[in-house]
Amino acid sequence: MPEPRSVTTHCPYCALQCGTRLSRERTGVAVEPTDFPVNRGGLCQKGWTAPALLDAPDRLLHPMVRRGGRLRPVEWDTALRTVAERVRELQAAHGADAVGVFGGGGLTNEKTYLLGKFARLALGTSRIDYNGRFCMSSAAAAGTAAFGLDRGLPFPVTDLGRADVVLLAGANPAETMPPLLRHLAAPELVVIDPRRSATAQRAALHLQPAPGTDLALVLGMLHIAVVDGWVDGDYVRDRTTGFEAVRRRAMSWWPERVERITGVPVRAQRAAVRMLARADRAYVLTGRGAEQHAKGTDTVAGFIDLALALGLPGRDGSGYGCLTGQGNGQGGREHGQKADQLPGYRSLADPAARAHVAGVWGVPPDSLPGPGISAYELLDSAGEPGGVRGLLVFGSNPVVSAPRAGHVAERLAALDLLVVADFVPSETARAADVVLPVAQWAEEDGTMTNLEGRVLRRRRLRVPPGHARSDLEVLHGLARRLGEPGHRYPTAPREVFAELRRASAGGAADYAGISYERLDAGEALHWPCPAEDHPGTPRLFLDRFAHPDGRARFAAVEHRPAAEQVSAEFPLHATTGRVLAHYQSGAQTRRVPELAAAAPEAFVEVHPDTARRAGLGDGDVALVSSARGRTAARVRLVDSMRVDTVFLPFHFPGAGRANLLTNPALDPRSRMPEFKVAAARLDPLPADVAPPTGAAAEVFA
Length: 701
Prior knowledge:
Radius of gyration: 24 Å
Shape: globular
Largest sheet: 7 strands, mixed
Strand order of the largest sheet: 5-4-18-17-16-6-7
Distance between the termini: 38 Å
Low-confidence stretches: 695-701
Strand content: 15-25%
Oligomer: single chain
Helix content: 25-40%
Number of helices: 22
Number of strands: 29
């Protein structure tokens, strides 16, 4: 099939999935935005520069196997045979769960689906999870408990532009998804963030709590809503259950107590509630700042409680939503790469769900392994007795992105087999025993599901360079060498999606009525879409919530301190996040010259008084330390920072990894690590520590 001159597709980065048109020109691939609803003809810096990644100078072009301590190019058959033989050896010696799979929230729906199928059938392992556990799991757990269904935004993005007030809790879309601001220009913004972020600077009201105290703050806001008479009593009576327990819990969180714990003035607490309650159209949106805590599920539940008390969810023009982060963060958690999940957002522990999916796969239900362990637990078990001895990584870079990253790197090094499928030599790929070069976004067909639950077509502009193959071809090749029939693992995305539709039918995330034909015809299809004559569901919950009784559930949650408290040794709160120029672990964006120039190295934002006490000035290199590790970062003095808090972006490698500091304490329900608050200290850089760098090192030197 000849390559097209141009295709209409979507940006490879965040969950907005902005519409783009790619064209092949003599100088390379050109991109321009389309008038897709979420971006309306706009793109951010990352989107405009995305084609530069296609021809990165160190693009992976050949399979490689480590021999004599070095990764050396081999033929595909040799690479796949090596993986299959070593997998069989490890499982023969240690059992099926000795080999695990670690996936990613940027994989297409087709790859996500086939990866979960491959793990459970070809490997027979329960040990599969993905990096979305580090992004969305707390919001997913809280949303499912409250509404009976988890979809990041249960309404189209365009609805936000009609709002009067939008509360953003722990979200910084001005840097993480700038085109969203086109929909946030008209509403008044209330922003909850320990930093005066680029989004907070646009806010009508900025609440600046101490890291780890968001739940106390929202309990105080609930208290105000109850005491000051802002609760929508008719809505609570007609559409919810459990309010009385929440009301009693909120009574102990009077505003003055909340101010002592959070640092947010009482007048600001009252102003935020008043703005939301008086608005005809209002939304509460959470992001990673509220979710990435050992109590993240409870924190999100608190914000949902506030939204329910004000009567917002399930109303046209108002609601609660979560700003999904990764490109396929929504679809990536629906189709089976989570430890406890089968396609269609089904529970792996549900006998009926197991029977349905097993029927589609043509295997007995009792042949499917049970639920496994979460992402950090999977990484932490690597090389340990009873843990995984081999790990296959697709679309993720945990050496940089995982909490307690130094420990995770050590655990990966202890594996008998580490296999990484990627298109650039990420820090995790450099540590691998086998590297499998795969296609990237403009070189593959497939589907993605954006933060609205809208299923989108990714279209191929060109064939992969060198010897790179699609992930579907890799899974097919491995499955065959592990003794599976090849027909179980199609390599054509359209064929995989047709099977995904059958597997998801009747599930919470029902794609049965969505087809390539309908998508290619331009239909806007949001799941659930149970039949081919169904229009899809852009707005959920307008008539009823997804629980059997149709009611939303309040959750009586209680604030508790962060898992780690500041001390004389570590007197500061360290919190992490993103910057405009980079995405996720930076493995992609650090290879784009324009983006690398915009944010070339690790840095730490510090209040001038805090820096002065540590003997540091603007531009100095600091050593930021926690109980788990230390990070080298360039000091940026920021007057608006809290004096007890420092901020580090997590996109940088080596000694600049912010996640060397972060705490792997896990939320008991979502298993989300506590990325957003760690006890830390700030010192001048010692002579024995390398300064920060964002440069990509030589790959296989």
